[in-house]
Amino acid sequence: MTSPPITLPFAKGHGCENSFLVLPDPDGRLRLTAETTRRLTDSHTGAGADGILRAVRCADDPEAAAMAGAAEWFMDYRNRDGSLGAMCGNGIRLFARFLVDTGLCAPGTLAIATRAGIRRVRVPSRCQDLQGPVSVAMGTPLFPGPDHITITTAGASRPATHVDMGNPHAVVFVNDPADAGDLRTPPTAEPADTYPHGFTTEFVAVRGPGHLALRVHERGVGETRACGTGACAAVAAHRRRTGQTGAADYHVDLLGGRLHIAVLPDGDMELTGPAVITAQGALHLPRTA
């Protein structure tokens, strides 16, 4: 006799068309495997998404228990290929929107735990049609080096800048984002040991003062419509390249829309953009999964 499938509640949404499944698991009972993650994010076997955001209370997850005093909720982020993610700028804004829209948190500033540490997200009061801008404090970009990195994709090799936004990025400047060519194949990096856990690549064009445009190949996913940490990494690399200092505002155009980045006087960045819940329902998995 066949056992009934497991039913998982979920929400689906996007930040600048960077799509995610949110799985509410407040008591930490769900154990996601890489295979299950790939099944759920696949458009044929699941609901289709760039990644999964499991919403679990810090106190009920061993990985986040040490942060329970600073944040109630932990964003357990998984890439589409099942690998763990430390931080996601679009994902955390959608995560916060979900917590507010479902009544798990009140509007305002939320402290959310991630594998990259605590991030503070500002969610306004519930907006019509579950839409509205959400902002997140992204911290200060780091430049781990080495100074000379080469990224190769579609047969072309270009210099890149290594930027750490809580996750690793390689930022490449081009005349036009289309110059990146086909991004279905992951770019490669030299020196090969620069990114031991993989990396996300941004191909960035300068459109004008305070205005960048980019395409992105996300680690563990492929080309996506947008990347929040990638947009911040692009701004950081641009400022370093041009010697800019001090507070400034930028807007970054991606395939999925526009993100706004404010660089504060102390060098910290704040990322603002859309966070939209598009569907809620239940996913059904074979009990063996």
Can you walk through the features of this model?
- With 289 residues, the protein is mainly beta.
- The protein has 2 domains: 6-139 and 275-285, Roll (Diaminopimelate Epimerase, Chain A, domain 1); 149-267, Diaminopimelate Epimerase, Chain A, domain 1 (Roll), CATH 3.10.310.
- The chain contains 3 helices and 19 strands.
- It has helices at 34-41, 89-101, 228-242, and strands at residues 6-15, 18-24, 51-57, 73-79, 84-85, 108-114, 117-123, 133-139, 149-153, 156-164, 168-173, 188-190, 200-208, 211-218, 222-224, 248-254, 257-263, 269-274, 276-285.
- It has a 19-stranded mixed β-sheet that branches.
- A hairpin with a 2-residue loop joins β16 (248-254) and β17.
- The longest helix has 15 residues, at 228-242.
- The radius of gyration is 19 Å and the shape is globular.
- The protein starts with 5 loop residues before the first strand and ends with a strand.
- The relative contact order is 0.19.
- The model has no long low-confidence stretch (mean pLDDT 94).
Summarize the SSE layout with pairings.
Elements: E1 6-15, E2 18-24, H1 34-41, E3 51-57, E4 73-79, E5 84-85, H2 89-101, E6 108-114, E7 117-123, E8 133-139, E9 149-153, E10 156-164, E11 168-173, E12 188-190, E13 200-208, E14 211-218, E15 222-224, H3 228-242, E16 248-254, E17 257-263, E18 269-274, E19 276-285
Parallel strand pairs: 2-3, 4-6, 11-13, 14-16
Antiparallel strand pairs: 1-2, 1-19, 3-4, 4-5, 6-7, 7-8, 8-18, 9-10, 9-12, 10-11, 13-14, 14-15, 16-17, 17-18
